[in-house]
Amino acid sequence: MIEMEMGPIRPPSEATSLMLRVTRGCHWNKCYFCDLYKQFRFSRRTYEEIEDDLKKAATSAHVKKYTTCFLQDGDAFVLPTDFLLQILEGIHKYLPNIKYVTTYARADSIARKSISELQELKDAGIEHLYCGMETGSDIILKKINKGFTSQSIIDGGCKAKQAKMILSEFTLFGIGGKELSEENAVETARVLNSIKPDFIRVHATGLKPSAPIWRYVDDKELTLQTEEEIIEEQKLLLELLSSNMDSYYMNEHIVNLLLEVRGNLNADKEHMLQIIDHYLQLPLEEKELFNIGRRLNIMFLLSDLENEVKRNKALEELNKIKQKSPEPDLAYICNYVRQSQI
User: Fold this and answer.
1) Span 179-205, pLDDT tens digits
2) Is the confidence at residue 1, as pLDDT, over 70?
3) How many CB atoms sit inside 10 A of residue 19's CB?
4) Is the distance from CB of 153 to CB of 131 less than 8 angstroms?
5) Prediction pTM value
6) CA neighbor of 102 nearest in space, from 50, 167, 169
7) Which residues contact 112 (CB under 8 A, 6 or more apart)?
8) Residue among 133, 193, 138 nearest 169 (CA)
9) Would you state the pLDDT for residue 342?
10) Do 171 and 200 form a contact (C-beta atoms < 8 A)?
11) Over the Cα atoms of the chain, what is R_g?
C-alpha cells in the first residue's frame, strides 16, 4: 500500500489505477442528489503536496504494478491547464511506468477549455475523461441543480472527442422519478447521440434521504420507481440510442439490476434489448425474487434464477420481508439498498 492522500471515490473501471489526489472535494458541490463531497471544503492541493505523494509512490515497491493514474477528486479539469500540465510532467518524471492518465471532468469544465488546450493535455498524457452528465434533460438538470445545461454537455463532449480523448458519459436512471422517466430517457438519448461518447456508463439512481433531492420525495413531487420501471426507462433509452454509434454501453456498477446488459451499440444492441425483454416478461413473482436476490447480492445475473441454492436463499429473504409487511414497498426497499452502495 502506498501512503498517499486519497479521495473518497473513483470510477469502477479505475480499480487498478494509482489514485493521485489533486483537489479535495468538488468545486460545485451543489447537486441535490449527491452528498459524496459534503464533508470536504473544496481546495486545490499545491504542487508541492502532489509532488510529495509522487515521490512516495516512486519509492514504493508496489508502484511498478500501476500503468494508469486517476486524478482525484470530483473534477480535476477545473484546474488551470498550465497546472494540469505541471502535474502530468511530475507524473512522468517520478512514475515512468504510468502510460495513461484519467480523471473525472464536469461538462462545463471541459467546455471552458479550448480544443488546443485539450489536445495539449491529451499529448501530455490525459487519455480518458469521465463526465457525469447524469441526464440530457434540461428540466431534470435544473431540478437536481447540476449547474450546467444539456448544451454544455454536448459542447464539452464534442470538444473532448475532437481532441481524440476517450470519453465516458455517466447517466442516471430514476433521477427524475416516475414523473420524468420518459423525459429522462428521451433527452439523454438525444444528447448521447449528439456526442457519440466511447463509453455510456449507466447507473440506477439510489436517492439518499440525507441528500437535498429527498425533499422532492417528501413533497410528493418525485415518486420512486420500481426496479421494473427503471428497467423500462433503460429500455427506452437503449432503443433511442443510435446503432451507428461505435460506443460501448455498460451496466458496470453494483447498483444496477441487469449487469449483463452491456456491449457495443453497433454489434450488441439487439441482444441487450433481448435481455431486458426477458426480464420484463418474467412473472411478477419471479421479478420480485430476482430484484431482492440482486439487491442483496445473492444473484448477479438473470440466469441465477435457475440456481437452486441462490433461488432458495433469495426466497428466504423475500419471505422475511413479507412477514414483516404483507405488502412491502419494494421500490423504497430497493432504493434504500442502492443508495447505501453509493
Assistant:
1) 999 999 999 999 999 999 999 999 999
2) no
3) 20
4) yes
5) 0.95
6) 167
7) none
8) 133
9) 80
10) yes
11) 21
Cell matching residue 316: 428466504
* Termini Cα distance of the chain: 24
Residue with grid cell 430517457, as numbered in its chain: 185
Q: Which of 312, 317, 313 is nearest to 330 (CA)?
A: 317
Cell of 235: 429500455
Three cell numbers, residue 88: 502530468
Question: Is residue 254 within 8 Å of residue 341, measured between CB atoms?
Answer: yes
CA-closest candidate to residue 152, choices 103, 104, 117, 112: 112
CA–CA dist 3, 60 (Å, integer)? 9
| 198, 130 contact by CB (below 8 A) | no
Q: Cα(250)–Cα(285) distance, rounded to whole angstroms?
A: 27
C-alpha cell recorded at residue 81: 491547464
Q: How far is it, in rounded angstroms, from Cα 115 to Cα 163?
A: 6
Q: Could you tell me which residues are beta bridge partners of residue 202?
A: 171, 251
Comparing CA positions, the residue from 132, 121, 104, 148 lying closest to residue 7 is 104
Mean pLDDT over 37-62 rounds to 92
Q: Which residues pair with 248 in a beta bridge?
A: 199, 264
Band (35; pLDDT cuts 50, 70, 90): confident
What would the grid cell of residue 248 be? Answer: 460501448
**What pLDDT, on a 0 to 100 scale, did the predictor assign at position 24?**
93
How far is it, in rounded angstroms, from Cα 137 to Cα 235?
Answer: 17
Burial readout 167-189 (b: 16 or more C-beta within 10 A, e: otherwise): bbbbbbbbbbbbebbebbbebbb
Between CA 270 and CA 290 the distance in angstroms is 23
User: Residue 173 and residue 188: Cα distance in Å, rounded?
Assistant: 10
Q: How much is the pLDDT for 38?
A: 82
Percent of the chain with pLDDT over 90: 89
62 band by pLDDT with thresholds 50, 70 and 90:
confident
pLDDT of 158 over the 90 cut: yes
